[in-house]
């Protein structure tokens, strides 16, 4: 089984490019905070390379910027290549299968608006619960249990 679930913040804007056959490919990094504190009482983070393809790549590049919080479900993919100095370089990436908006952006930001949802490589459209018919719910942060 090869499944990864992450929630974190983008460390840079996604880089979107297209392959020779027209497939969209997005690369970026996500900082994921560890659940424990170090000896100084501070939380550390892991910086993980993520890669998305097709519509998921386009959505990632269109709706997320450096600092955006997002959720990612995917799988680990490893590889290697030889750099210009002739050294073998090993890579580890999380290939995104599902992308989730974790926070709501305001309309004046460069991020997304009230069209929140989950985006998947398979369904390529927002997933909406039938109990929510597109109308927004006004809940203050003080009312949330987390």
Separation of the first and last Cα atoms: 31 Å
Secondary-structure element sequence?
A: EEEEHEEE
Strand content: over 45%
Sheet with most strands: strand arrangement: 1-3-4-6-5
Structural class given helices, strands, pairing? mainly beta
Question: What shape does the CA trace take?
Answer: globular
Uncertain spans:
107-116, 123-136
Q: How many strands?
A: 7
Average per-residue pLDDT, rounded, comes to: 82
Measured as a percent range, the helix fraction is: under 10%
User: What's the alpha carbon Rg, rounded to whole Å?
Assistant: 17 Å
Biggest sheet overview: 5 strands, mixed, barrel
Task: Compute the number of helices.
Answer: 1
Q: How would you describe this structure in keywords?
A:
146 residues; mainly beta; five-stranded mixed β-barrel; 1 helix
Descriptive account of the structure:
The protein starts with a strand and ends in a 26-residue tail after the last strand. It contains one helix and seven strands; from the N terminus they run ββββαβββ. Residues 107-116 and 123-136 have low confidence and may be disordered. It has 146 residues and is mainly beta. The longest helix has 10 residues, at 54-63. The chain has a five-stranded mixed barrel with strand order 1-3-4-6-5. It has one helix at 54-63; strands at 4-10, 15-18, 24-37, 43-53, 69-82, 88-101, 118-120. 7% of the residues lie in helices and 46% in strands.
Summarize the topology:
Elements lengths: L3 E7 L4 E4 L5 E14 L5 E11 H10 L5 E14 L5 E14 L16 E3 L26
Parallel strand pairs: 4-6
Antiparallel strand pairs: 1-3, 1-5, 2-3, 3-4, 5-6, 6-7
């Amino acid at each position: 089984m090869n499944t990864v679930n992450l929630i974190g913040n983008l460390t840079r804007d996604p880089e979107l490019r297209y392959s020779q056959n027209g497939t969209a490919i997005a690369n970026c990094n996500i900082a994921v905070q560890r659940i424990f504190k170090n000896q100084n009482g501070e939380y550390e983070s892991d910086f993980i390379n993520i890669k998305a393809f097709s519509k998921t790549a386009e959505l990632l590049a269109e709706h997320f910027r450096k600092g955006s919080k997002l959720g990612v479900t995917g799988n680990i993919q490893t590889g290697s290549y030889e750099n210009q100095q002739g050294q073998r370089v090993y890579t580890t990436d999380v290939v995104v299968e599902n992308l989730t908006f974790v926070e709501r952006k305001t309309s004046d930001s460069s991020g997304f608006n009230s069209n929140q949802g989950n985006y998947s490589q398979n369904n390529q459209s927002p997933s909406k619960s039938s109990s929510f018919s597109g109308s927004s719910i006004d809940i203050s942060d003080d009312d949330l249990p987390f």
